[in-house]
Amino acid sequence: MHLEKVPIKGILRTNERPKIYTHKDFYHFFIVSVEDVENAQLRSIPIDFLVGNNFVVTVHDGDVNYLQEFTHKNTSETYIGELDAESFVATMLDLHIASYFRVLEKIEKAVDIMDERILKKNLEDEEFIKQMVKLRNEVSKLRRWFMPHRDIFYSLSRPDFKQIADTDSYNNFQQLNEHFESCVDSIESSRDTVLSLFNLYTTKTSHRINNTMRRLTFITAIVGGAGVIAGIFGMNFEENFFKNANAFWVVLGAMILLALGATIISLKKRWI
Questions:
Q1: pLDDT, tens digit, for every residue of 38-62?
Q2: Claim to verify: residue 69 and residue 144 sit in the same structural domain
């Protein structure tokens, strides 16, 4: 294998948007895969591909999990060496898309856990906001890293891309386009799902506040009713009832009965 005019500077620029370039004897493209690392942090993995007649060269910093898994899984298989360069690239790009689906699955699982926690117990505002910010940042990263790959997948599946169109792998790249769009939809769906956590939390908070306000209103009504009774019997009228030694206990008992009666009725009607 002899390569001329290899874009070394382009390979070293790993902070650029994913692009594809065609050269005389090969084509070169750059992708950004994703992996979960320790502490559930996301790590972007820039990978350059140099593809020509029966060769594929990948350039990346450190190991890439899905490449390692593919290599170890198929060490004993003989058909891997029978794949042409385009079929092998299509396989690698499919695994690249799968790396995003793997992270999306973990995000969806985290969202389900948050759903359960919100419904089962009252989360502190700071804890909820911290988790929301983390999940939203992860989805935003996935969206920011994955969406620019559209140029690459569209280019590889176009009939005018000669290196692919002239091979038997053209249909594979058409299917990759569908997988790409499916992953885009999944990322957008995950974004909406994460945002729905906020709606669920605000609904739960509103429900909790409404219950508190109902209880406070009930207490106010009871205290107010007792105050009315106390006010009536506190007026300066010369009546024999007020001179009765047991009048205080009768009035107090009336207040207690009023409170108990109102409580029983409210519980039956589920006002409190």
A1: 666 788 888 888 888 878 888 888 7
A2: yes
Q: For residue 101, what are its two tokens?
A: 């689906």
Q: Considering the domain boundaries, does residue 27 fall inside one? A: yes
CA-wise closest residue to 52 among 29, 26, 28, 30: 26
- Same structural domain for residues 182 and 228? no
How many other CB atoms are found less than 10 A from the CB of residue 99? 22
Threshold 0.90, pTM exceeds: no
Q: Of the candidates 208, 232, 258, which is a domain's last residue?
A: 208
Give tens-digit pLDDT for 123-182: 777 778 888 888 888 888 899 899 988 888 888 887 777 666 666 777 888 888 889 999
Contacts of 18 (CB under 8 A, 6+ apart): 29, 30, 31, 32, 148, 149, 151, 152
Q: Do 72 and 37 belong to one domain?
A: yes
pLDDT in tens, 229-251: 677 666 554 555 556 667 667 77
Shared domain check, 127 and 187 = yes
Please tell me the predicted confidence (pLDDT) of residue 14: 59
Q: How far apart are CA 80 and CA 56, in angstroms?
A: 13
Residue (of 31, 142, 20) closest to 96 by Cα position: 31
136 and 255 assigned to the same domain: no
In angstroms, what CA-CA distances link 190 with 129, 140, 216, 254? 17, 10, 39, 59
* 259 neighbors 267 (Cβ within 8 angstroms): no
Of 6, 30, 4, 3, whose CA–CA distance to 16 is shortest? Answer: 30
Interatomic CA distance for residues 31 and 125, integer angstroms: 38
